[in-house]
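Exam prep: given the inputs below (a chain plus adenosine monophosphate), describe the expected output before reading on.
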Amino acid sequence: MELIVARDREDLVKARRGGEVALVPTMGALHEGHRSLIRQARVRADQVVVSIFVNPLQFGPNEDFSRYPRTFEADLDVCRAEGVDVVFHPDVEEMYAPDRQVSVSAGPMGEVVEGAHRPGHFDGVLTVVLKLFNLVRPDLAVFGQKDAQQLALIRRMVADLDLPIEILGAPTVREPDGLALSSRNRYLSDDDRRVALALSRALRAGAAELAPAAIRATAREVLAAAGPRLEVDYLALVDPETFADVDESYEGMAVLAVAARVGATRLIDNVTLTLTRGR
Ligand code: AMP
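Solution:
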């Protein structure tokens, strides 16, 4: 089947066939991480829609909206190779009317960890995701664990607003040396890249410890050893559903998350671990 490129809501309506629809929302500059989400969607649904939209609402005034990579033609090749049925690629005017007023609030969970460093970011994410859900009307949608707080907030939105959509999480795809794939990695020089490896190394070292204090301390040590070119925004060990800090008595799954800047490039990463009794 030919890949359909939909630029507006009429195109989307025309592209609809029967059967289960899966949506994979992206900002483009597609890489192997996005491909793994598409494959997961493909297995589960009759029709796969990939949205490619760099959402201005989720970027702060001093963030990289204008220099975010845009590689639409190459993205179409990726989508064709992965058997995607529809690419939804609206422009900003199609998504946001100049007089728009109503948006989604992520609530308190949108203001901690990543949200504490990017005010309004998760409101912008949830607003665009809800709009994409309403435009595409998928039965299921696939999101990466790479953006763990985003995934948790989307699950909360679906629960709190009774959205009839199944949310699937997909594991983080990494380079062989551990670096999590990201559209922003293309901005890293070889030197930057070596510094950036401290993120995944710190998460691995932390995850090898047993208790929260030791996990945090070990991960921090590895980050500090990377030197001053790595500017850490946060290292957090949190409950995967609420993103509240876990204490020493906590048991169960936890997320160890990090954000840091190397030069002008901001990177995030996380791992999931299990804290058990009797450690
Ligand atoms: P983005 O284009 O960066 O907004 O990401 C679109 C989707 O791809 C989100 O659900 C991300 O969590 C997911 N994603 C980004 N990087 C990776 C990765 N390395 N592995 C798995 N999923 C990813």
